[in-house]
């Protein structure tokens, strides 16, 4: 008893007791809390996949196959990822109404919860891009000027200089980017839907994508003004060149005709 009392009075006794208490608390937390949370998350994910599989069987399997392997009417969905599902279904492009050169955007028929379930099921078939978080696609604080450079370099060839859209070959087209949800723009860059090439983070970083989204938000904002005056639809050099050709060259021809007429009249007199 005397030895025990002496140890209790030792200067390090309180520290040892505190360390033991902390170790016991940490061990109990590790043993119980995370396991329960992980199990709950696993159960919720499993339920989402099951519900998504049911939705897939009704609305998608006829074209993409019962296991997402693809058919002659639709490509394989193995490895496309949750982001591709969220983009295609949330914008109403899928399920498609009819086959064609390109599936247009239309009214969405699924709730966001159902879209999440479909995405969970497709993601379970193979790894692919995940649905981005708001922090990834929120343009607040992004570099608009840098986004404009990136957009004109990588996107303007199809979508035109301010994202107004444009025609492609054999009935295809680049859709307008006006009033498109920033999340869907990010997902489109990440997954490359339909005729669009994909821009993974190795090609355009997360910051690059945010900058592009910020640029599109700036040029398509109701409050934005064209620094060059009349924007002529924002379609770039085609409409501007046509305007210059018709009115500029037309004006010069009119002046030349007027000068010639005046000269001929002066000679006669």
From TrEMBL:
Principal location class: membrane
The keyword NADP belongs to this UniProt entry's keyword annotation: no
Enzyme class: translocase
UniProt keyword annotations, A-Z: Cell membrane, Electron transport, Heme, Iron, Membrane, Metal-binding, Repeat, Respiratory chain, Translocase, Transmembrane, Transmembrane helix, Transport
Location within or outside the cell: Cell membrane
Catalytic activity: a quinol + 2 Fe(III)-[cytochrome c](out) = a quinone + 2 Fe(II)-[cytochrome c](out) + 2 H(+)(out)
Cytochrome c domain mapped to chain residues: 47-126, 142-220
Record membrane topology: Multi-pass membrane protein
Residues the record lists as binding heme c 2: 155, 158-159
GO molecular function: heme binding; iron ion binding; quinol-cytochrome-c reductase activity
InterPro entries: bc1_cytC-su (IPR009152), Cyt_c-like_dom (IPR009056), Cyt_c-like_dom_sf (IPR036909), Cytochrome_c_Oxidase_Subunit (IPR050597)
The UniProt record lists the keyword Repeat: yes
Listed GO CC annotations: plasma membrane
Pfam families: Cytochrome_CBB3
Bilayer-crossing regions: 242-261
Summary of subunit composition and partner proteins: The cytochrome bc1 complex is composed of a cytochrome b (QcrB), the Rieske iron-sulfur protein (QcrA) and a diheme cytochrome c (QcrC) subunit.
Name assigned to this protein: Cytochrome bc1 complex cytochrome c subunit
Organism of this sequence: Streptomyces sporangiiformans
């Amino acid at each position: 008893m005397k030895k025990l009392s002496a140890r209790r009075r030792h200067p390090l006794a309180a520290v040892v007791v505190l360390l033991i208490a902390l170790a016991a608390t940490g061990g109990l937390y590790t043993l119980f809390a995370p396991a329960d949370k992980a199990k709950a998350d696993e159960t919720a994910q499993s339920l989402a996949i099951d519900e998504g599989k049911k939705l897939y069987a009704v609305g998608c399997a006829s074209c993409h196959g019962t296991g997402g392997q693809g058919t002659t009417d639709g490509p394989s969905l193995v490895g496309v990822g949750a982001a591709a599902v969220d983009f295609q279904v949330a914008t109403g492009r899928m399920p498609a109404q009819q086959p064609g050169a390109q599936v247009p955007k239309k009214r969405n028929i699924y709730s966001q919860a159902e879209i999440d379930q479909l995405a969970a099921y497709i993601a379970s078939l193979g790894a692919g891009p995940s649905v981005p978080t708001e922090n990834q696609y929120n343009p607040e604080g992004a570099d608009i000027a840098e986004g404009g450079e990136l957009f004109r370099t990588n996107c303007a060839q199809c979508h035109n200089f301010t994202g107004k859209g444009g025609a492609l070959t054999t009935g295809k087209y680049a859709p307008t980017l006006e009033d498109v949800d920033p999340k869907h723009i990010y997902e489109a860059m990440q997954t490359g839907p339909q005729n669009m090439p994909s821009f993974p983070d190795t090609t355009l970083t997360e910051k690059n994508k945010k900058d592009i989204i910020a640029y599109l938000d700036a040029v398509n904002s109701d409050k934005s003004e064209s620094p060059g005056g009349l924007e002529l639809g924002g379609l770039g050099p085609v409409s501007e060149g046509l305007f210059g050709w018709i009115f500029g060259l037309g004006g010069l021809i009119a002046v030349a005709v007027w000068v010639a007429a005046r000269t001929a009249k002066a000679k006669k007199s």
